[in-house]
Amino acid sequence: MNIFKKLVNYPSEKARIFDIDFRKPWIDIFWHQKSLILGILLYVIIDDATLSIFPVVVGWIIESKSYSLAILVAAIYIVIEIVSWFTYHPYLSLVFSQTHDNFRYNAYKHLLIIDPVNHVQTPSGLILGKIQRTTTAFLDMADTILDELIPIMIETSTVVITMMLINFKLGLIVGFSIFSLSILFYIVSKYYTEDLEYQLNKTDDKVNQIGAESLTQFQFIRASFTTDMIRKRLFKSNLEVMSLQTSVWMTYRLIRGVIVVLYWVALTAIIAYLIALINSEKISIVLATTLVMMYLRGTKGIFAIDKRIKVILRSYRRIKDFYSFIDALGTQTFPVLDTELHNVVIIENEISDIYFDNISFGYPEQPQTFQDNSFRLKINKSEINKLFGIIGPSGIGKTTLISILGGQIKPEQGKVMINGVDVYSVDDSVRRKLIALQGQAATGMRGSLRYNLTFGLPEAERYSDEILIGLLESVGLWSLFETKDRLKTEIGESGLNLSGGQRQRLNFANLYLRANYYKPVLILIDEPTSSLDEVSEKAITSMISELSNQSLTMVIAHRLKTLEDAKEILDLSLMRKNSELKFYPPDQLSQHSEYYRQLLAGTQDIES
To answer: Structure pTM?
Structure first.
């Protein structure tokens, strides 16, 4: 049993993760494993060639009537099989697992590091469906080619070569028949199914998108009483997939039927020629019989060639579809991963210097949000109050502003400099020491309450239950978890679902911990918007004030009360008059901004 376990675990010890560049041809994933694939091919050539001629070898043994020859041949085949335990099978297992899991890892990694703006218009259900489909396609292609198609090619080639050695004309007949059948099937399959497969992939994407949406938006669907409407969409799209799938399968089955008929015609011609050779006493009946057996054994894969070609073509089309999709989705334009840069950036400074330098940016097919806009904030770190507010009408670009400042959206033009460091020239290991950001999105990670609270902090950094509970009490959330599993309470799917406002307050608590740990130069906050009781409101305002004593803090305010202690306020509505953005003390801002005066007078809603 120990030997068996060692054999089973042998390939897993050599498994490795490697990087895939999606800008290169898709076959690059196999090029990374060329040594393994070469080893597989060498073994397959030896193994399948010897197995293909086995009927002829048996005939030779019978005609020789030699026991020792029979034992020798059996020993050779046994040795070949034992060798496969240490070469072919572990190599093949490695290629399968590395192909499957390296593609999946690199696909998710690629989506993690491309610019966040590229994710805005792409439904997650569509992305996940394509990744799952392409992961399976890569595995199916590797499995079918290495474990099925190549052995068939070796077997049929061996049959042709062996028959040529025995009778050249016979070998030509066999070779021509096999080659013609294979080419015919490939051409017909490729051109008759290509459009069907394309339509099938598009419809399958629609099914995945609707299916994922029905799960992620379950509560909204039920609350809006639209369950049957979504069911009808699922019914229609699944029926369309079913119809296309049936047409694809039927196409391959019909092609296979034609191939089988032609195969039997070819076999009949070969047998007729063998009979002629027997009658002319050029070969014996035993040899002719073993040649037919060899032909049947070596070409048996042709009977199921439709399945192999179908799998390969479908896998190829799905892989090409994914690579086209990932290319159109967008790219990474600035460093993200800690391993991407190895430069050490000195960011210690007595002055907090934020430079929004000549920035231009606009979302696709929308007017420019920023056009050659600039501002510069310099403040001594020793100053107690470093709170700066951001206001402006809805849709003017407040969230986009802190996304650009926060290293999330790289501008089309200009630079964001923090203490002389270009935010988009460093990776996240430096960026998190420059910036702490709480964005507008009310989302989080699946996992425990503790995990969500401490997300983004080093695993070695431990906080006592008392500290975390106190923090949750401050943001008005602890009562939700106190009667459940406390800090172990699962959040998200299969756990406790939080409202958007509750999720934002939890994210703010997480920001508070990160800001206190990394002590960044700049803190960016999209203020939690849900209704708070008076105690929680005061606590969050106090926590923001505490953070602003430590770092320069910019807050998108959804209530003017949050900015009561703001040193200066930026009103983006003034951007329409002047490209030079300017922070004003509150008393001066009222002299420059009609929008701000209306907010103070209560005639303008800050959210509108």
So the answer is: 0.80
